[in-house]
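User: Run a structure prediction on this.
Assistant: Running it now.
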Amino acid sequence: MNMKTSPNDVSNQEILAALHAFASSVDERFNAVDGRFNAVDGRFDGLEGRIDGLEDRFEGLEGRFDGLEGRFNGFEGRFDGLECRFDGFEGRFDRLEQRHVELAESVQDLATHMDERFDEVDRRVTRVEALMVTKDYLDRKLANQYSDVMQHTRREIEKAVG
């Protein structure tokens, strides 16, 4: 059966191509997020090394604490700087989390839309299957038609001869 399609109908190939493009885009975004996490992890490792170095200094300064009060005030400033950096990390994580939520919502919207499209395709395939005829039916119909043609041809020959 010939179904008319409108210019707005989307083929399965186009749907699959769109899904593939979307999946590639999601993969790229997740890879970018993974890279950011690795960069942040590297920074934390660097901070951990610096803090370990500070702890070593504190252990060496325990005996001379009274004379080094000024130096501790300097370290306090450094910790304030680290706190600012941690606040910056927290802001970055919050933005990253928001982007992840938005991406997850977009994926969910697309999945819902695709489910609806596939349901429509399934309904159309079911409708087409309901309208289809079998090969056996067509063979029987063709045999009947052939028999009718042969009988008609014989009658015409008999009329012409007789």
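The longest helix spans residues 69-131.
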